[in-house]
Amino acid sequence: MKTIVFDAGPIISLTMNNLLWILEPLKKISNAEFCITEQVKHELVDTPLNKTRKYMFEALQVLHYIENKTIEVIDNDAVRNQALHLLSIANNCFNAFGHNMQILHEAEMSAIALYLQKKADAFVVDEKTARLLMESPDRLHSIMKHKLHTKVEKNKENLNQFKKITRGIKVIRSVELVTLAYEKGFLDKYLSSMPSSRKTLLESVLWGVKLNGCAVSKREIEQIVRMEL
Amino acid sequence: MESAVRNDALQIIKRVLEILETKEEKDTMELKELSNNTIHNASIFQDECSISIAVLIYALSKIIERNPELDYSRVFNFLKEARDSLENDKEEEFDTTIKKLFSEISRLDSKIRLYVQEVINQAQIKKGSKLCEHGLSCAKASQILGISQWELMNYIGKTNLAENAPQIIDAKARLKFARSLFA
């Protein structure tokens, strides 16, 4: 059985577009388990329900898919410990004014820790920082230097250690999930009688996840649309 | 409090006082710029002082923008108190004054209290998106500002943050891999 680990971002992007339901048919065709950690669940469900009044209904929708076992919540000491270890490395990779920049959150690191524990097949993450730190830390460093208008030093030892631990992690985003849902025909019920309805449908879901936080550029969306049609 | 943070905070509060001393049309723009400068420190030090000041100044700019006729004299006085506390290195006093400032902003007009709370919330989200722009993750920025990731992601999606993100792996390759998972 395959294992796909989710960060909070893609679940948020899908829920905000009323597309969380696509996880059920995607899970069925892939025979995969969809997992989140307790820390990610906390961000998705507990914070909106217990701390803020905003996005409570969205949180309930996520809870529904947790309770019907589409999404499995995994919590164990090994994941928690590994998450803290990863967090201490990741948050000591860049330094400005003699201060280590705390760029990542425990929830993201717990998802990576779970991926490593389960030897998972994919990590679904929408936001760019965690992805860049794994795929191209130098680019992340450039962004930080440029945006902060200050000297940001790299801790090469920690960067190499993080790279070594996370090497081989395969990342996808919600934008790939909605494209697959489109390809598999799960969204066909939304096809209309208007001209170019397939293109409109695809663009609508791609732009939908982008506008709700998936780090995908306009150029990439255009590229996906060209590939699909 | 880090001395760099304290010095910057002091300079910023002094500048806010200068701006508010004479009402001008450019005040709100200047306050927003100041707020953006403060968020640089917030990205690096992630201290309550830089974050509170950034949110406070941004919220103040929005309130002044929409309610130019309101009386801000109490805000002005609290800002002076905050300046004096920083100058005398009285951190606790400073924290209390900042809290009073937030309450005062919320109380500016009881009729617009809900609106003011909304402005403060929007300011937190706006500042959270700035932290993400500086390289912090969405979850981390939400934690620092005390907002939920739902709010921040919804806002970030409407900015051009993703447009400037480098494309390390081609969309075609990522999609090909995704297809292999759901074959």
Structure description:
The complex is a heterodimer of chains A (229) and B (183). In chain A, helix 3 (38-51) packs antiparallel against helix 6 (106-118) and helix 5 (77-90) packs across helix 6 (106-118). Chain A is built from twelve helices and eight strands. In chain A, strand 4 and strand 5 form a beta hairpin. Chain A is globular. Chain A has a five-stranded parallel β-sheet. In chain A, strands 5-4-7 form a three-stranded antiparallel β-sheet, with no helix packed on it. Chain A is an alpha/beta fold. Helices cover 75% and strands 0% of the residues of chain B. Chain B is an all-alpha fold and 183 residues long. Chain B is elongated and about 65 Å long. Chain B has nine helices and no strands. At the A-B interface, helix 1, helix 2, helix 3, helix 7 and helix 8 of A face helix 2, helix 7, helix 8 and helix 9 of B.
Short description:
The complex is a heterodimer of chains A (229) and B (183). Helix content of chain A is 59%, strand content 12%.
Beta-strand level of the residues of chain B, as a percent range? under 5%
Count of discrete domains of chain B:
1
Number of helix segments of chain B? 9
Strand proportion of chain A, as a percent range, falls in 5-15%
User: Largest inter-chain interface?
Assistant: A-B, 75 and 48 residues
The quaternary structure here is heterodimer
Output the structural class of chain A: alpha/beta
Mean pLDDT of chain B: 86
Q: Which regions of chain A contain 5 or more consecutive residues with pLDDT less than 50?
A: none
Helix/strand order of chain B: HHHHHHHHH
Structural class call of chain B reads: mainly alpha
